[in-house]
Amino acid sequence: MIFRKSEPPQSAEPAPEPSRPGTKGRPTRTRKEAEAARRRPLVVDDRKEARRRDRERASQERMEAQQALMTGDERKMPLQHRGPERRYVRDIVDSRRNIAEYFFPIALVFMLIALVLPLIRPEITTAMSTGMIIVLWGGIALCVVDSLFLRRSLRAKLTERFGEVQRGLVGYGIMRAIQIRRFRLPRAQIKHGEAPR
User: Fold this and answer.
1) What interhelical angle do 99-120 and 125-162 show, nearest 10?
2) Which of 40, 161, 167, 190 has its CA 20 to 30 A from that of 25?
3) 61 and 129: one domain?
């Protein structure tokens, strides 16, 4: 035979003060009542409205992240740009003049010339293409050498300041050095030659 507590009749009167100190002064809820209180619908009633709210929230978060990349506010930046180590890497890269940031715009101009010039002067195509190949491969070689120097410098400075170098930090710095300074995100917060923060 199972014994159950009889529930007191429902009344509009306030609950009486507990007779003993330390007690809650009301009967414990049954399991059924507790589960009913926690139950929420898995699918909202108005799906279109829920989707619209989700889109608005995602759009707002994207706008805030984009604004943070422009202003340098790390609290709202995407996770891959947060932290003192990554800020320090960005400052090291932004404080030096990287060969790649100058080479890639020049290479783009050369490639456009290589496409347009044969249409204007077809007779000088061979000599020009040979010279351009030499210039392009020479520039790529200089970028690689500069990246190796940057890699060594980043490792030394990060070890000196933070101890162990986290995985991916050096690659993060090299990828930033390849980008044209004006188009880097997060935006550079220091000028050429300034000491990292």
Assistant:
1) 170
2) 40
3) no
Q: Which of 60-74, 102-116, 137-151 has the highest mean pLDDT?
A: 137-151
Residues 55 and 98 both lie in one domain? no
User: Is the same domain home to 73 and 162?
Assistant: no
- pTM confidence score: 0.68
- Residues 129, 169, single domain; the answer is yes
Residue 63 lies in a domain: yes
- The answer to whether residue 166 is domain-embedded is yes
For the chain, give the number of residues. Answer: 197
Yes or no: say if 168 and 154 are a contact pair by the CB < 8 Å rule: no
Q: What is the pLDDT of residues 77-97, one digit of tens each?
A: 888 999 999 999 999 999 999
Q: Find the domain containing 55 and state its range.
A: 47-81
What Rg do the C-alpha atoms of the chain give, in angstroms?
Answer: 32
Neighbours of 26 (CB within 10 A): 10
Buried b (16+ CB within 10 A) or exposed e, 36-74: eeeeeeeeeeeeeeeeeeeeeeeeeeeeeeeebbeeeee
Write the CB contacts of 126 (distance below 8 Å, at least 6 apart in sequence): none
Express each pLDDT in 30-61 by its tens digit. Answer: 898 888 878 766 666 677 888 888 899 999 99
Domain boundary pick from 55, 81, 107: 81
State phi, psi for 20 to the nearest 5 degrees: -115, 140
Identify whether 88 is part of a domain.
Answer: yes
